[in-house]
Amino acid sequence: MTSLVRRGLVAGWLAALLLLTGCADPALPQLEASLDDIRQKASSEPVMVIPYIPLYPAQRYQHSDARSPFLPPQSIQDNAYGVAGENGPDPQRPAEPLERFSLQELQLVGTLRMGGRQVAMIATPEGEVVNVREGNYMGTNDGRIVAISAQEIEIRERVYTQQNGWQTRPASLTIDDER
After folding, report:
1. Contacts 24+ apart (CB under 8 A), 59-64
2. What CATH number does domain 98-174 carry, 1.10.287.370, 1.20.1740.10, 2.40.160.40, 2.30.30.830?
3. What distances in angstroms separate CA 145 from CA 109, 134, 139, one per listed residue?
4. With contact defined as beta carbons under 8 Å apart, do 9 and 16 qualify?
5. Confidence bin at 1 (pLDDT 50/70/90)
6. Using one digit for the tens of pLDDT, what is the confidence trace for 46-77?
């Protein structure tokens, strides 16, 4: 039995040797020579291959005489932002102190009557209290105070939209007893 095992081992070794010789690459020495040549050359930047891009004939833009889609219609352009229209703000008017803040940041803390006129006290986010009267401006949307009552300030803001141009919208500040 030992001779049988020995013959099997020898046959296995011979089969493995035959398989390994089949894996030998005849071009391996040539590959190694090419790699040696590449290693010995001074390194330089790789060659940049610029692909060919075909030239297309110029096309005429067919809608060049029409309105640009990136500009508002002429009726809106005539009443553009910064140009005083029917409801637009006065660009020459100097800004007032409370126009730095949005209405949501301002708080009505009290009202009183001084010299026959109603005066409101507005607290800013910076902790400052500013007195205002009818006609003063406040908020970032050119809001003008139109009325002051004991508990509320009525404001008319001017807002600009592409569809409708300058529009006025009502806003108000009320005394909040919960704060």
Report:
1. none
2. 2.30.30.830
3. 16, 5, 10
4. no
5. low
6. 778 888 888 888 888 887 788 777 776 665 55
